[in-house]
Amino acid sequence: MSDSQLSHKIETSSVLSWKSITLKWTILTSVAISVLFTLFALTIYKTSTNLMIEQEELTFSRTMSEVTRRLSRSSDSLSFNSTTFYLKESTGEYVGEGYYGKETLEASLMNLNSFISELSRPELNVKVYDPAKYLIFETKSAYIPFDEEFKNSVSIKSYNHIAGLISLTPIHSDKTGELIGYTQGFYELENFYNFRRNLLKNFLMIGSIGLVISVVISFLLSRYFTKPLRKMAKALNSVEDAHKTGMRMPVPKSNDEISDLANAFNEMLERMQGFITQQQQFVEDVSHELRTPVAVIEGHLSLLNRWGKDDPEVLEESLSASLQEITRMKSLVQEMLDLSRAEQSEFSHQNETCLAKETIETTVSNFQMLYPEFVFNLDIEDLSHKVELHMYRNHFEQLLIILLDNAVKYSKDRKEVLISVSKSFKFVDVMIQDFGEGITDEEKEKIFNRFYRVDKARARHTGGNGLGLSIAQQLIENYNGEISVNSHLDMGTAFYISIPFVEENQN
Fold first, then answer.
1. pLDDT tens digits, residue range 154-172?
2. CA distances (Å), 205 to each of 50, 94, 198, in order?
3. In the chain, what is the straight-line distance between the N-terminal and C-terminal CA atoms, in Å?
4. pTM of the entire structure?
5. CATH homologous superfamily of domain 349-506?
């Protein structure tokens, strides 16, 4: 599979994955909103209908209680005339059947008070029976049979496909206590059921509209929240070229998990770019520096192959030169490996510490043994034995060895090296000074470059490859330290390094 096909496949997979996340997010959010709205609507619907039916029952019960109270004023069994008389709430006394004569209910209602208007409501039907259960009065002609099942209670019952509240109450005279009749009420609930149907219909309509709106909003929100993920997928598809283009993941300002993920991704790209750059630089440097010794060895071997092997003097010279170049190659490869490890030390030994005074004294003591002709003046009395550096001990030793080795190599007649150690606000400061040939201002800006040699002829003679100070600078930078140089021609050079130490409250 070609690179373009692989890239296309990755992009297609990324798009499908993005669609899947968006779809799932939209569906889950919409379902959650719909469920919450449905529960809310059902609660409102149930509460509203219960309150309404309770209110209707309360009003119906009060009306029927008032009818019973008024009719109970009668001393005798109820009749049509006495019923209309007492329902009027007259202050007088009923004087007999001739009070109303043969007037109809409709004519009598014209003389009744507002309570009769309440009884005249279209949905209310009130019937009055005498003790023999014979109908003597009704506000509306409708079939509602006398049924003692609903005595002294309010229930819902349907007659002729019309549902309503029904009750039956015996009427006892307040004066004699005798049963004088019955009052039966039927309150149609058609308006209530219409209201309930309309309420349910409105909830369904609002729910449908809300569902559509929630789907749209959920989709837009999912698009918004997955936008950084889509950009990340795009960046991942171009990860091979990220070190060339410098492309990085845009970090959202939301300061949330997605921004943390974007920052982590950018840090990964930074490290990857650093590794790629180191690899390229390593290959370029090695190929450049090995070209000369390989060419020298190849030239000597070609000379020996043609005729030099028969000449002992030429043979010895060629073997000696070849061995010298091989030694240089070994030293070069080792230093390149040291430089590569130094560049990666910030990832592998970031939390390592070491005792500053012990490490410095040990390293200087080793140099005194290796170079007995030199005098190493160490001023470290003011530094406590307990001071720890934020640096891996092997790296600190390597740093001191590089600087001390340079001081020894570039010293002239005065075989002396000064080492001064002090403690500042947050750093341990080390100065290593020689009394050698010194460095010009122009060369001071280049000495930390790879393979740069102040005196190329002398460096080749002493075995240097121009990598020591590059390694030292890389080690210092990896541990957030500083390195600088001060030099005068024919007077000597002083290197200054500052390394953070561990504060006592961190131990």
1. 888 888 888 888 999 999 9
2. 22, 58, 10
3. 56
4. 0.45
5. Histidine kinase-like ATPase, C-terminal domain (3.30.565.10)
